[in-house]
Amino acid sequence: MKKWLKMLGLAVGVSMIISACGGNSDNAGSNSGSGNSGSGQSASTGETKSFEIKAKNWAFEPTEIRVNKGDTVEIKLVNEEGMHEVEIKGYGKKIKDSETITFTADKAGEFEFICSLFCGTGHDDMIGKLIVE
Ligand SMILES: [Cu+2]
């Protein structure tokens, strides 16, 4: 009657060996890009930049967001007055009220962001710019 116990022990042992192989040590190299001298282009990418866009009737604040290509961009939308949504054209991103989105700025250029929720007479004035350098 002890045979099943042996079998059980074997099964546990085998599964432990299998799971031990699953070690995932995939660490992206850490950034050592501290200290900006301001000269030329720094090749360091992968910084995380956080922004908060405040929306009111009828403007965004700030109207310009500047990042470097390769950066991870985090944007939160805060509606201070009225209800607005942000759409970043060319990146296909939308941010709803109180929402935070995160994406990688993998395309360089200037991308307009607008209010994508009709909010009244000044709706068309709600324009900002995402600049990816
Ligand atoms: Cu609007």
From TrEMBL:
Compartments where located: Cell envelope
Domain EfeO-type cupredoxin-like: 41-132
Residue stretches spanning the membrane: none
Organism (species): Thermobacillus xylanilyticus
Protein name per the record: Predicted Cytochrome c oxidase subunit II
Keyword Transmembrane part of the UniProt annotation: no
Gene3D superfamilies in the cross-refs: Cupredoxins - blue copper proteins
Pfam families from the UniProt entry: Cupredoxin_1
